[in-house]
Amino acid sequence: MRALAVAASALVLASCAVGPNFSSPPAPDVAGYTPEKLQSPGSDPAGPHVTAQRFVNGADIPTRWWAAFRSQPLNELIKMSVEHNPTLQSAEASIRIAQYNALAQRGLFFPQIGANYTPSQQQISGASNSGPGGQSPAVFSLHTAQLNVSFVPDIWGQNVRAVESLDAISEQQLFELEAAYLTLTANVVTAAIQEASLRGQIAAIQRVVKIERGILEIVKNQFNAGQAAQVDVLGQEAALAQSEQLLPPLQKQLAVQRDLLTALAGQFSADEILQKFTLDGLTLPANLPVSLPSKAISQRPDVRAAEALLHSTNAQVGVAIAARLPNLTITGNAGATGFNLAELFTPGTSFYVIAASATQPLFDGLTLYHKQKAAEAAVDQADALYRQAVVTALQNVADALRSLQADARALQAAVKAELAAKASLDIIQKQLALGQVNQVVVLNAQQVYLTAAVVRVQAQATRLSDTAALFLALGGSWPTDCPTRDWRACVFETHVASK
């Protein structure tokens, strides 16, 4: 009871821990992400129709933000990835490590008690009369059993600050888990969009190849009829071969992309995922939530992790200061000693020692002083890293917004170019059948359409990818009402409404 009272007194004293108290940095004093008023992506009303998107200022981001693409295969793949990806499992283990370290540090608030039992056999020198019964030389056994108690009152709050630092590290690891979760889901979405883009490009090239084969048949028929030269046939064959040459690299990229998606899902490459993605199977989200800068900063896990690191380093300054101040250690031993085990429980064999020791560093070559200065410099470093994280976060959002504003115009231009190139090629193909155009015109029209078709697919995929990038830049939405251990089930069951 006395030890507990001492511990309680120490905790009261520790409430005035030395060192600076931490306070969260203020939110950035900005109201938007761009110098001008944010405008939703726009396109030319007179041009080809493209799906419109609208920025919704101040709207909340759904927990299952990827559901906005309305793809069931994508939903299934993300669930599989979140359940089986080793990166998330590693991040969860890091949280447990940090939490157990913090709990271990809390143990120093209490007395440390140990038990010791030492049996020995001794022989007294013949020159001594100190053996049992005053006889010498003597051989005898000695049994000692004791309890050892030590306690260091946390007078200056050194342990309080150490626990505070480790708790902040635990918090940092939680935010690292959030970041890993957000990065994983964004990577799966982006990889799926890239797979859809590759499939679209392959399909576009295959359409062009089919057209070029038809043109080749026309040219061959004209050559057989004496209406075309052999050079025209060879030129068309070369154009067809060049188009076909584009397919193997894209097919290789598609296979590699499938391997990437399989790995993100935590599967071996031999166990390829079943889900496949096309651009037609992905819906472009129409309403895009744009959080206020202060809200985005509070949602970004990398920024919050940087704040937790700042908190941890701030607490370490108190630890370093306390190490330079006087310290008190209380120790106590109580036990019994006897010539045999039975005597340990008889009167007259017990002993105890109670001692206190006060220490004050006097000269250490300025070691502790420089450790304190290093801790203070670490705070400056962590503060700079936090401010850089905030700047980067706002830059990421601004970049995504700028990209989306340009993407609508780029896609509209690509669609317009593809439609015009296809119409031109159709006319030239008919003229070729009538012998009204030369082969050079035909080859140029084929190349223009091929390029326009591929660019249109890439522009469509870019718009989808930049939409995912906006959700990533805004920090997604971590299910704060879910327990850490069961957050997977919480995301995919409790938050189905965010679909």
Automatic annotation (TrEMBL):
Subcellular location: Cell membrane
Listed InterPro entries: MdtP/NodT-like, OMP_efflux
Superkingdom assignment: Bacteria
UniProt xrefs under SUPFAM superfamilies: Outer membrane efflux proteins (OEP) (SSF56954)
Pfam families membership: OEP (PF02321)
Record's keyword terms, sorted: Coiled coil, Kinase, Lipoprotein, Membrane, Palmitate, Signal, Transferase, Transmembrane, Transmembrane beta strand
Molecular-function annotations in GO: efflux transmembrane transporter activity; kinase activity
UniProt region (Disordered), positions on chain: 28-48
Keyword Repeat: no
Membrane topology per record: Lipid-anchor
Coiled coil segments of this chain: 394-421
Signal peptide: 1-23
GO cellular component: plasma membrane
PROSITE patterns xref list: PROKAR_LIPOPROTEIN
NCBIfam families linked: outer_NodT
Annotated family: Belongs to the outer membrane factor (OMF) (TC 1.B.17) family.
Name under which the protein is recorded: Histidine kinase
Annotated source species: Bradyrhizobium macuxiense
